[in-house]
Amino acid sequence: MSDDASLAGVKVMVIDDSNTIRRSAEIFLNQAGCTVLAADDGFDALAKIVEHEPHVIFCDIMMPRLDGYQTCALVRQNRRFCDTPFIMLSSKDGVFDRARGLMAGATEYLTKPFTRDSLLAAVRAHAPSARGTAPL
Asked: Where do the domains of the chain lie?
């Protein structure tokens, strides 16, 4: 738990059409001191990303309207967010799915169900303030 102090103030966006996944991630991240922004699909997330400028984005792949691959590609096209860590969340664990995520611009790929530790480790590894670099 002592490492959690390094996550205080880190803004994390969680994009998933499953309320259960969003709530679980939100609870884990809030307990670690993160500010959590939630969206239920990629379309909903785009405006929130521009408005709130998260430090790390977690995104499900299979969602209605705009899937995770499309969402990642759109975020990567925006100069302000092209370097924002974008972590795919998926129950699909195949080589093809991982490769497609990386081709879309994902920084990392976590499989569901994720654990509290794996979620926080990903934030620690990628959040600018957790690495000692000032957020934008």
From this structure: 2-126
- Of 90, 22, 26, 86, nearest to 58 by C-alpha is 86
Mean pLDDT to the nearest integer, 105-109: 94
Residues 33/55, Cβ–Cβ less than 8 Å:
no
Residue 101 burial by Cβ neighbours in a 10 Å radius (0-12, 13-18, 19+): buried
Question: 113 preceded by cis ω (within 30°)?
Answer: yes
Average pLDDT, the chain: 89
Residue with tokens 């975020």: 75
Q: 2-126, what's its fold?
A: Rossmann fold (3.40.50)
Helix (H) or strand (E) holding 31: helix 19-31
Using DSSP's 3-state secondary structure scheme, residue 110 falls into: strand
Instruction: Tell me the pLDDT tens digit for each residue of 3-20.
Output: 556 799 999 999 999 999
User: The whole model's pTM is what?
Assistant: 0.89
